[in-house]
């Protein structure tokens, strides 16, 4: 071979290197896409957790518990008596079980949190 033929790459070498590059790029792109999706899911989960903690803090500010609807900050709190098979015995002792539902004021159809709380009868 002359020096002129040794200076460049052959077409086979270029195609082989391109194929190897593609074989490496596809899994790397999938890893990056998966990591980005996981990060977005984590971000949404964190937002939900922060929203839930804020809703729980709002629900805990209700003292004394009384049936009704209250708007506190970004939340609407709905307190209703909760009936169950031993409600009469609880009422005799001066207590009432309440269902506390916290909803976002912006999205009234979506419950952020729902729980039951024990409160003294007024």
UniProtKB/TrEMBL annotation:
Pfam families: N_methyl (PF07963). InterPro entries: N_methyl_site. It comes from the Bacteria. This is Prepilin-type N-terminal cleavage/methylation domain-containing protein. It comes from Nitratireductor aestuarii. The lineage of its organism: Bacteria, Pseudomonadati, Pseudomonadota, Alphaproteobacteria, Hyphomicrobiales.
């Amino acid at each position: 071979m002359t020096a002129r033929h040794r200076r460049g790459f052959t077409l086979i070498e270029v195609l082989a290197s391109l194929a190897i590059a593609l074989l490496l790029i596809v899994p790397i792109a999938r890893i990056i896409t998966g990591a980005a999706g996981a990060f977005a899911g984590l971000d949404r989960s964190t937002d939900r957790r922060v929203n839930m903690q804020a809703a729980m803090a709002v629900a805990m500010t209700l003292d004394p518990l009384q049936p009704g609807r209250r708007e506190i900050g970004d939340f609407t709190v709905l307190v209703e008596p909760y009936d169950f098979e031993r409600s009469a015995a609880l009422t005799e002792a001066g207590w009432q079980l309440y269902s506390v539902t916290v909803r976002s004021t912006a999205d009234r159809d979506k419950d952020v949190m729902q729980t039951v709380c024990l409160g003294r009868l007024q």
